[in-house]
Design brief:
This protein has 294 residues and is of the alpha+beta class. 62% of the residues lie in helices and 10% in strands. β4, α9 and β5 form a beta-alpha-beta unit. The longest helix is centred in the N-terminal third of the chain and has 43 residues. It starts with a helix and ends in an 8-residue tail after the last strand.
Length: 294
């Protein structure tokens, strides 16, 4: 098939090398083209005008060549800047080029690849910090967030309370009815927690049937009231084939002091939780307070 001008133009548009060759060819031969046009028009052949034409054509060709090459490679500078910004602060690379040459292919491929990798990384980070069964945070996530909340509470001179709770006799549920039923119980508990937390509260599953709530700006008495509401809602859960009221939990509540480490907070709440279990389970026990029965 004989190449047509339109086919040649498409080939040049799709190839950076072809465009560079075309621009350089025209820039190099512009003085010759200008001289041929000048002489062919019947103008004087005196050295002065001829030299002027040659110098002007050479200057125009050089400026045109350099500026066109800069325009061709300009997207690479934008791509490099976008990649550096992504590496610095995670700003997404949104560069999309309409051109179909090598630079366009490279830029669009890099942008697409980074976007896909960023999505995968976000998903992996979420999976690394989330308990897949309940949708709550996991222990690793809680360790990171509780330090932030402690710093904020100390800076704002605000209280912060911790609630630990265990599902009562959860092992018996798994042993008697199977782990599928146990998983349903955990998912139902997670749903209750997610639906009733305040926007600034933290919740995590930190063990098999052990959960932790971190309640910023909350005194021990308020935390105990929140725990009591959760206790009552868990008791109302009815998950086949369990009898109504079978899902219960024991709670330990502790209001932290500015000097408390995360380990100290959890230890005090765990001691209160242990006392709640000792005094009959399905109840809320605050550190330093008498147990509250149902």
């Amino acid at each position: 098939m004989i190449p047509t001008p339109s086919m040649a133009l498409r080939a040049v548009r799709g190839s950076l090398v072809a465009k560079i060759f075309a621009v350089c060819f025209l820039a190099i031969h512009l003085p010759l083209i200008a001289m041929i046009a000048y002489l062919g028009s019947g103008f004087s052949t005196n050295p002065g005008p001829v030299l002027t034409i040659l110098l002007a054509a050479t200057l125009i060709g050089t400026i045109t060549c350099l500026s066109t090459l800069w325009w061709f490679i300009r997207p690479l500078r934008s791509l490099a800047s976008a990649v550096q910004q992504y590496q610095a602060d995670g700003t997404p690379v949104r560069l999309r080029l309409a051109q179909s040459d090598e630079i366009g292919v490279v830029a669009n491929t890099v942008a697409t690849t980074i976007a896909e990798l960023d999505g995968v990384m976000r998903k992996l980070r979420q999976q690394a910090s989330t308990d897949q069964l309940t949708g709550l945070g996991n222990r690793r996530w809680l360790t990171e967030r509780i330090a932030i909340e402690q710093t904020r509470a100390e800076r704002e001179k605000a209280p912060i309370s911790v609630v630990l709770f265990d599902l009562d006799h959860f092992k018996n549920i798994n042993d008697s009815h199977g782990h599928d039923v146990g998983d349903k119980v955990l998912m139902a508990v997670g749903e209750v927690i997610r639906d009733n937390l305040r926007r600034y509260d933290l919740a995590a599953r930190i063990g098999g049937e052990e959960f932790c709530l971190v309640l910023p700006k909350t005194r021990a008495s308020e935390a105990a009231a929140i725990a009591e509401r959760f206790r009552a809602q868990f008791e109302k859960l009815w998950i086949e084939p369990l009898r109504p009221g079978r899902v219960t939990a024991s709670f330990g509540v502790y209001e932290a002091t500015p000097a408390d480490s995360m380990q100290a907070m959890l230890l005090q709440a765990d001691r209160a939780l242990y006392r709640a279990k000792e005094t009959g389970r399905n109840r809320v026990q605050s550190a330093g307070w008498p147990a509250e029965s149902r």
